[in-house]
Design a protein that fits this description.
The protein is mainly α. The chain has one domain. The protein has eight helices and two strands; from the N terminus they run H-H-H-H-H-E-E-H-H-H. The protein has a two-stranded antiparallel ribbon. The N terminus is likely disordered.
């Protein structure tokens, strides 16, 4: 095989790797019908969310695309997480006030408010729970012997 053929086959593999893990139709089937504006926004977000998941996988030493090729159940989980994150971003209010909750008092001059998106962005929309579903975060357990005699007797 020539080097040009190698590059072409690598480019073909790269096309699959940059493909979004979910579609707008998947989001609509899992959640609710989307307006035309939401569909356009979801269509733009899906490749970005998918790439963010790929990069997070790489950061944790996992190749998401390779695992999808050998495990159809994992492919479903990745699709669900992609839809969850994208829909979470779609629900964020991009117009008007960014406050989701506001509280005021009377003569004590007290006021407090909670922002709907504390930081925003795709990376902040991927929760630890999503990483656990993808198998990227796992609970670690450690122990330490505090009694010397126990370790010697085991």
């Amino acid at each position: 095989m020539s080097s040009q053929e190698d590059r072409l086959s690598a480019a073909e593999e790269g096309k699959d790797m940059n493909k979004p893990f979910a579609t707008v139709e998947d989001i609509q089937r899992l959640y609710r019908p989307l307006s035309a504006a939401e569909q356009d926004r979801a269509d733009a977000l899906l490749p970005l969310v998918s790439d963010e998941i790929r990069v997070l996988g790489r950061n944790y030493g996992k190749d998401i695309d390779a695992r999808i090729k050998v495990d159809s159940a994992y492919e479903s989980v990745v699709k669900i997480v992609t839809c969850d994150v994208t829909f979470r971003i779609l629900r964020q209010n991009t117009e008007g006030d960014a406050m989701s909750q506001e509280s005021q008092s009377g003569l004590g001059y007290s006021w407090s408010g909670t922002f709907a998106v504390a930081g925003g962005g795709i990376a902040n929309s991927i929760l630890n729970n999503d990483l656990k579903k993808l198998g990227l975060l796992k609970q670690k357990m450690g122990s330490e012997f505090i009694w010397q005699g126990y370790q010697e007797s085991v």
